[in-house]
Write a structure and sequence with these properties.
Number of helices: 20
Bound molecules: flavin-adenine dinucleotide
Strand content: 15-25%
Largest sheet: 10 strands, mixed
Number of strands: 20
Radius of gyration: 23 Å
Distance between the termini: 49 Å
Oligomer: single chain
Structural class: alpha+beta
Length: 565
């Protein structure tokens, strides 16, 4: 059963299975790239396993701008093929998981002296619509300055010549990764978080598996596999180094920061993609009751696990907002949370961070280790197809045959609506069920949207766990999400729950503060933690809260002050 195979309570059983019979494929890295590969390989009939040294999606795949986009910005770099491919991919990502991804209209203001004039914007988005195969109802509109201001009164009036209006798809990157992993596990794959690959095994010079360390216990075990894929995003060169194959092209790390502001303070009605004076472009995106703004793009040489916002990043983004939305008068006090991510780009000599291509590339080492680097959240499925095609070819030499890639037709876990058009009615129906179970309508609807067709399992946990929730001082909806996370989504630490399962650390930090004690109390009992474990997990959550709310002086690891101070 999927829940037994994707539950923190099943760690010992998962480890035993991983250390048992050899696999066809071992994937190292549980971000979107690794998750996509696990699903593709499993769906084609391979016996595949995945290990992740942190929580799933704790790397870059939880730190993006959270857009499944056609990549309009890549048109500027004339990456026509990339725009066409990812544009079509986003339709697939949406159809397979409409509970995770939502189409949103986005304004592209045209400002005097900006990067694009009216004609270039009009033609650019027209070409983008065509390349990306955008559906008729979502094709671009061109707006006059008055029309743009009517839609978005916060825009600067000074120099506004009009706007392009087009559709982007907003997503929850961490939940996208998780729902893909859950589906892969449901179909027979196996995955473990907090399991670090510390070295490779070789047989006659060929990579034949990896040594894995359980990060919680320090225990080590060996996973044997015919093929091994290094899908470790910003860490790919570290693993290539262990394999003795770090040569030729290497990674170029750049950091991207986002800030989060309350919707009352920056009441943006639409997503806006706008020019800033240094020639870059920045997003401002409303989500739930917040607005997030990003991103920066600067060379990065710091800690890959815990990249953070510096004072300079913060001030840059505040200036960007105040340039395009002058009446907002945003200040440092208004910032509630932030996140920083490291882009795993493939180095191109002499190029500025924003100019480096986001294209992906596969490196094959002399030992047979496959490394997939670069890429986008949006193009993860095609990246997986490319890698699994190579694996299938290699395994095929031993007389095995596998089905072709069919992940375009596999709904993610929670996405079994029978088509995206059926989702609104489903959400309505389940929202009413939630109300009957005693939830506020808003909470019931939020759960139905977040968990999609898995929400019935969440509601069943709610119905059967009232006494338990009360005993631990947990709100019923929080209890239901937590119990579901522990049993069906491999939540292993409070941070997993507050950051990657619910997104609350970024988008509702007060909710984290209100619920953290009860959540930790319940997790300690459910996971059998000692007092020492409990304290360690509580401290770790506090460190993540600090990371999101305290700025660094520079990329030095030294805090410089509270974000809102
Ligand atoms: C600021 C920013 C904004 C972005 N915005 C967008 C966007 O809006 N849309 C879009 O399509 N793309 C966007 N991207 C790009 C996208 O987020 C990344 O391309 C993608 O998330 C990379 O995924 P990944 O799985 O390759 O890497 P990761 O998500 O980093 O996953 C790699 C994983 O490997 C694990 N790992 C490392 N070493 C080991 C080991 N030894 N053993 C086990 N596990 C290991 C890490 O812990 C990590 O979780 C953005 C990127 C950034 C930084």
């Amino acid at each position: 059963m999927a829940e037994v195979r994707f539950s923190t309570m099943a760690r010992s059983a998962i480890k035993a299975e991983m250390a048992g019979e050899p696999f066809d494929l071992l994937i190292i890295g549980g971000g979107i790239t690794g998750a996509g590969i696990l699903l593709d390989a499993t769906a084609r009939g391979m016996k595949a396993a995945l290990v992740e040294m942190q929580d799933f999606a704790a790397g870059t795949s939880n730190r993006s701008t959270k857009l499944v986009h056609g990549g309009l910005r890549y048109l500027k770099q004339f990456e026509v093929g990339l725009v066409a491919e990812v544009g079509k991919e986003r339709a697939i990502v949406y159809e397979n998981g409409p509970h995770i991804t939502t189409p949103v209209w986005m304004l592209l203001p045209i400002i005097e002296g900006g990067t694009y004039g009216w004609l270039a914007t009009s033609v650019g988005i027209y070409v983008y619509d065509k390349l990306a195969g955008v559906k008729r109802s979502e094709r671009r509109k061109m707006l006059t300055a008055e029309q743009a201001l009517a839609i978005e009164p916060l825009l600067r009036r000074d120099g506004l010549k009009g706007a392009g209006y087009y559709v982007e798809y907003r997503t929850d990157d961490a939940r996208l990764t998780l729902e893909i992993l859950k589906k892969a596990v449901e179909m027979g794959g196996i995955a473990l978080n907090y399991a670090k690959a510390t070295g490779f095994l070789y047989h006659e010079g060929r990579v034949a598996g990896a040594e894995i360390e359980d990060v919680f216990t320090g225990e080590t075990f060996v996973v044997r596999a015919k093929k091994v894929v290094n899908a470790t995003g910003p860490w790919v060169d570290e693993l290539r180094e262990k394999d003795g194959s770090k040569s030729g092209k290497t990674l170029h790390h750049t950091k991207g920061v986002h800030i989060v502001v309350d919707g009352k303070r920056f009441p943006l009605r639409n997503s806006v993609y706008f020019d800033v004076p240094d020639g870059r472009m920045v997003f401002a995106i409303p989500r739930d009751c917040k607005t997030y703004i990003g991103t920066t793009d600067t060379d990065y040489h710091g800690d890959l696990v815990h990249p953070r916002m510096t004072q300079a990043d913060r001030d840059y983004l505040i200036d960007c907002v105040n340039f395009m939305f002058p009446n907002v008068k945003l200040t440092a006090e208004d910032i509630e949370s932030s996140w920083a991510g490291v882009r795993p780009l493939i180095h191109e000599e002499g190029k500025d961070p924003s100019e480096i291509s986001r294209k992906d590339e596969v490196f094959v080492s002399p030992s047979g280790l496959l490394t997939i680097a670069g890429g986008k959240l949006t193009g993860y499925r095609k990246m997986a197809e490319k890698v699994v095609d190579m694996v299938a070819r290699d395994l095929g030499e031993a007389g095995r045959s596998f089905k072709p890639c069919n992940t375009d037709k596999i709904p993610y876990s929670g996405g079994d609506f029978g088509g995206s058009d059926k989702m609104p009615a489903f959400v309505e129906d389940r929202a009413q069920r939630g109300v009957k179970l005693g939830l506020a309508e808003e909470d019931a609807r939020r759960l139905a949207r977040r968990y999609g067709t898995n929400v019935d399992v969440v509601f069943n946990l709610l119905a059967s766990g009232r006494d338990r929730a009360e005993a631990y001082g947990l709100r019923p909806d929080v209890y239901a999400e937590l119990a579901y996370g522990l049993r069906h989504e491999m939540v292993a630490t409070p941070s997993d729950f507050f950051i990657r399962r619910t997104g609350a650390l970024y988008f509702d930090i007060d909710w984290v503060k209100e619920n953290q004690d009860a959540v930790i109390r319940y997790m300690a009992a459910a996971c059998g933690w000692s007092d020492e474990d409990t304290e360690r997990h509580a401290r770790e959550l506090q460190a993540r809260v600090m990371e999101a709310t305290v700025v660094e002086e520079a990329d030095t690891g030294l805090p410089a002050g509270i974000v809102g101070a």
